[in-house]
Amino acid sequence: MPDPHKARESYWLPFIRDALKIDEKTILIGHSSGCEAIMRLLEKDKVRGVILVAACHTDLDNEGEKESEYYNRPWDWDTIKSNAEWIVQLHSPSDRLIPVAEGRFVADKLQSEYMELEKRGHFMGHQLPEVLKVIKEKCHV
């Protein structure tokens, strides 16, 4: 992804739209700032499904997050929800970067399938078998 440290919307959304060529058959998986990018993308674009890992909806009073451009306007929850056939979220109560209340709020607004996984922190490990399981279930594999 371009602009990996600030994860600015003005860089990430054009990249996702153009380089990845998303359409209504696409499944997007986002982690942390990638979740906010996907949610903003869904305000205009349709996809098949979305997996959000450690999503938030506020800038957490963090200057770096404020610079990311995702939080400068209200979220269009209804449009986000309607532009994906399904949305699944994963969060951990032990996440020290994004409080679990943020993930719960997003899940409530999006009426997503929501899983809280204990002792997973900010999901910085190299494997997340729950994501593969969701994809297999949703794609009937």
TrEMBL record:
Molecular-function annotations in GO: hydrolase activity
Gene3D superfamilies associated with the record: alpha/beta hydrolase
Protein's name according to its UniProt entry: Uncharacterized protein
Phylogenetic lineage: Eukaryota, Metazoa, Spiralia, Gnathifera, Rotifera
SUPFAM superfamilies reported for this sequence: alpha/beta-Hydrolases
Highest rank taxon of the organism: Eukaryota
Organism: Adineta steineri
InterPro entries hit by this protein: AB_hydrolase_fold, RBBP9/YdeN
